[in-house]
Write a structure and sequence with these properties.
The protein is of the alpha+beta class. The protein is 33% helix and 17% strand.
């Protein structure tokens, strides 16, 4: 995307206007915003969490339980429409409790997979421009306030209700924007589904995307490019992508919020609030 064409959408008066203008661009222009891919090496590990409650198969190692959700059961997710079969995974189990909203002391199954054949996936991290930075924030945004802890909601309410967000360029680089963008976007998953389609038209194995629950990811803004998947990342794999991995183990565990990486997020929000308030004087 040229600098001139980047300038136009970033001058929009609202997120909804920005999204409408972006999706009105030509196919090549939209794809030019997401140019990077990620190489998944053989031996790479992936993880998935499922609640024990509601898991009815007595054979927890049944591979059919751990593959992409069958089309007839597939409900809309961040990057899949109703009836679209995909598998959501992560490169670390340390924040998956928040991803699936586990409760304190709740039992869950932790599955580990390993990559048996190297492959490529698309990413939302590419050229260092504001359009990409804002789209990156949207793709990793929490889906609703239920994804936040009670204390996080209080902190974000204060930030959001006082109008501290700024213009679209400010939002694009704001470390906290992925915690409040869902309040500014109607049908967030409809938007992220369309963004996912743009990337998967080029990379049919799937996508690597950032998790809002990993502090180094959610706080990074455009500079996260230097850390593209080195330590943490979420993945959505298609049936073709799933062919390159296999299930290794499943174990039953008990969730302890104190062991979750996301506990650092509240501290980060408070520090950002403090920095903002001090900058006003």
């Amino acid at each position: 995307m040229t600098e001139e064409k980047e300038f136009r959408p970033m001058k929009c008066n609202s997120i909804s206007e920005f999204i409408t203008m972006f999706f009105g661009l030509g196919k090549k222009e939209k794809q030019s915003v997401f140019t990077e891919r990620m190489f998944i090496k053989k031996g790479t590990e992936f993880f998935r969490v499922r609640r024990v409650k509601g898991f009815n198969n007595p054979d927890i190692y049944d591979a059919r339980e751990w593959g992409p959700v069958p089309e007839k059961y597939a409900k809309q997710g961040r990057f899949n429409a109703d009836g679209q079969s995909v598998l959501y995974l992560a490169s670390s189990p340390e924040y998956l409790g928040r991803e699936v909203r586990l409760e304190e002391s709740e039992e869950y199954y932790l599955a580990k997979y390993i990559c048996t054949k190297s492959f490529w996936v698309g990413t939302f991290l590419s050229t260092n421009n504001y359009v990409n930075a804002l789209m990156h924030k949207i793709t990793m945004s929490v889906s609703d306030d239920k994804d936040l802890t009670a204390h996080e909601r209080i902190l974000i309410d204060d930030y959001f209700n006082k109008g501290k967000m700024g213009d679209l360029c400010d939002i694009a680089v704001n470390p906290l924007s992925s915690l409040f963008l869902h309040r500014m976007i109607t049908n967030l998953y409809d938007v992220t589904n369309r963004l996912g389609q743009i990337v998967m038209e080029k990379e049919d194995c799937g996508i690597r995307y950032s998790s809002v629950y990993v502090p180094i990811e959610f706080s990074g803004g455009p500079q996260i490019l230097t850390l593209d998947g080195v330590e943490y990342g979420n993945f959505v794999l298609t049936e073709r992508g799933y062919e390159n991995i296999k299930l290794c183990s499943v174990e039953k565990k008990e969730y302890q919020a104190s062991e979750d990486l996301s506990i650092l997020i509240e501290t980060f929000i408070e520090e950002e609030q403090k920095d903002f308030d001090e900058s006003r004087y």
